[in-house]
Every structure is written in C-alpha cells, then in structure tokens.
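note to self — DONT lose this again. spent like an hour looking for the file last time. sequence + predicted structure for the chain T wanted, 309 res
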Amino acid sequence: MNSPDSANPAAIGFVGLGAMGYPMARRLLDAGYPLTVYDVTAAPVDALAADGATAVDSARAVAAASDVVVSMLPDSPQVQSAMTDVDGILAGLRPGTLVIDMSTIAPSVTREVGSAVEAAGARFVDAPVGRTSRHAEEGDLLIMVGGADADVDSAWPVLRNFGRDIIRCGPIGAGETMKLVNNLLTATIVAANAEALVLGVSSGLELETVLQVLRMTAASNTHLKSTYAEKALRRDFSPGFATRLAVKDLRLVQGLAIDQQLPIGIGAAALQLFSTACSQGHALDDYTSVITVLERLADVELEEHAESK
C-alpha cells in the first residue's frame, strides 16, 4: 500500500462509498491518510468513521476539508449533482484542490465537470477503473487517467493506493473514453461466450468438450478461462460486475458512438441481451448471468455440466 508523507500527509476526501468506493476509501484510511467521507447512505460512512475517518453531511463539507477529493459515483447525473448542487463539491473547493473523479460516466459530462472545477481555481483528472470490487479491496485496479500531465503526476501517489496498473490516456475525458471502449469489448465478449456455450450444449456437445476446444484456439479469451469458470459455470452469480452496470456502460458507449457517427451493431446486440437479463431479475447479479437468458430460450441448463469447469 502506498503510504503518505508522514510529515505532511494530504487530507483526502471521498464522495461515494458504494461497492467500489467503500473499499477504495478503506485503503486510504488504512494507509494513514486523514480521510473525510460522505455518502447518501449512512452505513458505509459510519463504518469508516468508526475506524477514524471524519464523517460529514455533504459533498461540500468534504471538499472544504480536503487537499484531494476523490469521487466514485454510479453515473453521470450523480456526478453532476455531487459536483454542482448547492452543497456539492464545487461549493466547498479551495484553490488548488485536486479533484479525481473515478466514476464511469459520459466523457462529455467529464469534460463539463472538469471545466467547472478548473474555473473554480482547482485541478481535475478523470480516472475510471477496471476490474472488480475484489480488486478494489486488494488495491489491484486498472486505472485509466485523463488530465494535464502535472495534475496526473499529483494524483499518482493517491491512485497508487488503488492499483498498480495506471495508464495515462490523454487530456480530461480520455480516461472515460478509454473505459467505455474497454467495456464495449468486454461486454460483447461476455455475451458471445454465453451464445457459444449455450449453442454448443443445446446442439448435443458436452460442455467440457466445448470449453476444451474454445480455450485452445483463437476463440480463447480471459472471460472464458476465468470469469465464466469462477462465476456462471459454478452458478455463482454474486456480482463481480453487475449486469445493470453492463447495461449502463453500453448505453454510455452508444452515446459516444452517436457522437462519433459510428455504428456499433455488435455493442447494440450485447446491450439488448444484457437488458433482457435485467428484465428477468438479474440486474444485481454478475453479468455472466446473461447466460441464463439463452439457456431459457434453448431449454437447456449448463448447471448440471458446470462443476469444476
């Protein structure tokens, strides 16, 4: 874990203590940073406060107490609200404060927020993350960063607490753009794996045979080898990455593609499949639960074939 300068540690504020934000804030607290926290839900705030964090009642109060403000929120509207409301971050910012937004939101909103932060005399970087809540707990997230070089350099010691793989992607908004490009490909691969596995088994092949061949050819991919093996094929749909988040991100991808006047038919098909999974009760399940949509259509269940796969 990256320890702060013990003589003069930066005061850090954290806004948004959900499935990803809470373990990330916990890592800062465990590293010894003075930490001020806020969330609309009391439980994670209280848990961190019990271990030494300072709990406050608004994002504005977080900013007023902090040299660095980190936000990790669900979507564009929540980021806009947390930044611009009367009790938002902008209202409490001190000149020179560094704001690091680690949410996954629309790049256009990121640039708007970044401009507002800079107009207030502060600094801004976007730093969305890849991987899961388990990686957040372990400090092994992939972080995609957008912002001016000097501001990214300033953010680096804080970001190192969350992950070792930190990629500079370009100016403000580039981190978000890279995250959406990544999640487009990730989601379509997860959907394609589900189609291939269900098609093979429903056509009479043994699941073990399908997996053996697919993992030995150019069709092989990390999700087939690990994500499906750890989740769907064990019938463990506890969320590493929830289906509803796949839907959210694919909708953001669609918006980005519209801005670029670029058709993304494969991504649109994946969005339809994940949306169906949500409508069938899997919104909060792991996104490999998308396989159940196809199982239902094919009238097969891979569960009986899935032990130790």
